[in-house]
Amino acid sequence: MTESQTAAEAAAPAQLAPMPEDWRRALAVVAHPDDLEYGCAAAIAGWTDGGREVAYVLATRGEAGIDTLDPATCAPLREREQRASAAVVGVGTVEFLDHRDGVIEYGTALRRDIAATIRRHRPELVITLNHRDTWGGVAWNTPDHVAVGRATLDAAADAGNRWIFPELIEERGLEPWDGVRWVAVAGSSTPTHAVDATAGLDRSVASLLEHRTYIEALTDEDPEKYCRTFLMGNAQALASRFGGRPAVAFEVFAR
């Protein structure tokens, strides 16, 4: 092996491990309608195909996301689009925590709300979105994504501790759930694991396309072309790190 080959191998991105498969229930917690569709719907489609249960919890209804629509009009529209989007990939449970879009605050109130949903749904896998300040050091992340992602990581532990938020037991009858085994972060610049996206890619495109009102306000490009180009491009970009297969990547934290 030459010195240049050694250097090239050292510089190559690490291969991604397959996601854990020994689980039955997952809970996805994100800030806005469309966060999961931009991030990991192809993986979710594959999981529900295999008989796994996935539920969605959104901190907001995305009411501040479309400049041409006032929040009172926008919120129910985006909720409808999100429910339709989830159904495309086999998800029937979609809940909203009703924090205010654009001004979500990280703190105990948000952690409590997410811990409560974890106790109710009792997942083994929790999914969230990039909680870091940037997207790969290139683009600044939104405060909502940072707050919800970080709070979800914390709430996965909070949910199992009866002495944190004891009011969840006393007032709502939500006993601790210490069964979260992994938190998987979509959209991370430092992924560790991946899921083969082949079977779910077309449905992920259709799922994102259900957010048509948002997409048409975002771009002048044909909505279907926009969705397909974005999602297919991201999945194919990971193929070299996952055995040549298009993939959805996650940074996985084991608990």
UniProtKB/TrEMBL annotation:
The answer to keyword Zinc applying to this record is: yes
Q: Which organism is it from?
A: Streptomyces alfalfae
Question: What InterPro entries would the database entry show?
Answer: GlcNAc_PI_deacetylase-related (IPR003737), LmbE-like_dom_sf (IPR024078)
| Top-level lineage group | Bacteria
Q: Which UniProt keywords apply?
A: Zinc
Q: What is the lineage of its organism?
A: Bacteria, Bacillati, Actinomycetota, Actinomycetes, Kitasatosporales
Q: Which region is the signal sequence?
A: none
Q: Which Pfam families match?
A: PIG-L
Q: Which Gene3D superfamilies match?
A: LmbE-like
Instruction: Output this protein's name.
Output: GlcNAc-PI de-N-acetylase
